[in-house]
Amino acid sequence: MAEEVMVDALPYIDLGYDEAGVRDQALAMVEEEARRYRPTKNYLEHLPFVQSKTFETPIMKAEFERLAHLHLLRERVDLVVATRINNLELMLDYGPATWRLYLDTLQRLLTDGQRKLQSLRKQIQEVNWHRKSIQSRAGEELKSLEGSWVGLISKNFEIELAIAQMEAELAEFRKAEAADQEQPPLDR
After folding, report:
1. Average pLDDT for the chain
2. What is the distance between the alpha carbons of residues 46 and 36, in angstroms, rounded to a whole number?
3. What DSSP state is assigned to residue 186?
4. CA angle, corner 118, sides to 116 and 99, nearest 5?
5. Nearest alpha-carbon partner for 80 in 96, 88, 92, 66
6. Which residues neighbour 64 within 8 Å (Cβ) at sequence distance 6 or greater?
7. Whether the Cβ atoms of residue 29 and residue 5 lie closer than 8 Å to each other
8. Which of 54, 73, 91, 188 might form a disulfide with 95, Cβ 3.0–4.6 angstroms?
9. DSSP 3-state assignment of 11?
10. CA gap 154, 158 in Å, rounded
11. Residues contacting residue 56 through CB under 8 Å, at least 6 positions apart
12. pLDDT, tens digit, for every residue of 78-127?
């Protein structure tokens, strides 16, 4: 520490930090400090152990207990992480086979569903064909019956015309007979 520089700065109050070169000088000082200071994992090991209990207050005791409790929580979190890792390892070991089994089950369900759908469509087709054949036969029978009905109506009309004509002839015949009866018989 041959060249120690004492920095006395109040950056929010002091002026002049915006001048040219001041920022570069500050960055150079930070880099120099970083080169000289090589932190280790336990950089306080060269210092003697401090008995902190002499300075503890009730508030500090409560805080230390809280921190110890956080350590227990951290152990629980570590347990959860270990469980997750165990679950991931189990999934890596058994997951693919389980998924294959699941996919096979889904495939079987799909195949069964498609087969049932085909069967239902076939049954629907058979019902529709049966209905069509019944209705076609009934339609033919209805046409036949309608034709005979028209024929019978025509015959009834012809019979009624014939009856009307005969009644007219009978009426004429009766008139003629009545006229004949009114005339005196001719002597012979």
Report:
1. 83
2. 17
3. P
4. 55
5. 88
6. 56
7. yes
8. 91
9. coil
10. 6
11. 64
12. 777 888 888 899 899 998 999 999 999 999 999 999 999 999 999 999 99
What is the pTM (predicted TM-score) of this model?
0.38
Distance separating alpha carbons of residues 99 and 105, to the nearest angstrom: 10
Task: Give the CA distances from residue 139 to residues 1, 124, 134, in Å, rounded to whole numbers and listed in that order.
Answer: 119, 22, 8
Q: What does R_g of the chain's alpha carbons equal in angstroms? A: 61
d(CA 82, CA 74): 12
Compute CA distances 70 → 1, 10, 59, 63, 184, whole Å: 41, 37, 17, 10, 153
- What distance in Å separates the CA atoms of residue 62 and residue 56, rounded to the nearest whole number? 10
Label residues 143-155 b or e (16+ Cβ within 10 Å = b). Answer: eeeeeeeeeeeee
For the segment 126-155, the average pLDDT, to the nearest whole number, is 91
The Cα–Cα gap between 32 and 9 comes to 18
With tokens 């239902």, the residue in question is 120
Contact 23, 17 (CB under 8 A): yes
Joined tokens for residue 159:
């019979």
Cα 14 from Cα 8, distance rounded (Å): 10
Q: Assess contact for 128 and 122: CB atoms under 8 A.
A: no
User: What is the distance in angstroms between the CA of the first residue and the CA of the last residue of the chain?
Assistant: 191
